[in-house]
Design goal:
InterPro entries: Cro/C1-type_HTH, Lambda_DNA-bd_dom_sf. The protein has helices at residues 3-25, 29-36, 40-47, 55-71, 77-87, 94-112, 117-128, 141-148. The chain has one domain (3-149). Helix 1 packs across helix 4 (55-71), helix 1 (3-25) runs parallel beside helix 6 (94-112) and helix 2 (29-36) packs across helix 3 (40-47). The protein contains 8 helices and no strands. It has 154 residues and is mainly α.
């Protein structure tokens, strides 16, 4: 897979899972939109696939997600989900990806129902147990940004 295909795959992966990630972070569409300077309708359109996520939107969203992980240590699940869905997604088979996506949707639905903290972490641990083989070591902003922008220096 060439660099452009890898970029497209990463952007598609975030777009496909944006709704779940947003819910696990505890944000409404409006709150997430405010964080990156777009309307809640733009977030809705991205989540529903009505508009294609741009590289700029991807970078803005990943930055906000990373900032949330760094500053909200009480959300134990978001770093795990980001690690599985975004940082290591390309390491899984298509079948494993589908399972990961479905499990994360279940975690997001649980979070939307008001379950947070240790209770949500327990749900997440059960659903991601076979997927997270090692302790979560969330990639730094520099790592994922370097990966997505790899082709810019060539």
């Amino acid at each position: 897979m060439d660099i452009k295909d890898q970029q497209a795959a990463q952007i598609t992966c975030l777009q496909k899972n944006l709704s779940a990630i947003r819910k696990i972070a505890g944000w409404t569409s409006e709150q997430l939109g405010e964080k990156i300077g777009v309307t809640k309708q733009t977030i809705s359109n991205l989540e529903n696939g009505k508009t294609q996520m741009t590289l700029t939107q991807y970078i803005a969203l990943r930055s906000i997600i990373d900032f949330e992980i760094q500053t909200n240590k009480g959300n134990l699940v978001l770093p795990q989900v980001v690690e599985v869905l975004l940082n290591n997604y390309d390491e899984y088979t298509e079948e494993e990806r589908e399972k990961v996506t479905e499990n994360v949707k279940t975690i997001a639905a649980t979070a939307s129902g008001g379950i947070t903290g240790a209770a949500l972490a327990a749900v997440s641990a059960g659903l991601l147990a076979g997927i997270l083989n090692s302790p979560v070591a969330t990639a730094t902003t520099a790592a994922w940004l370097a990966k997505i922008l790899k082709s810019k220096g060539k």
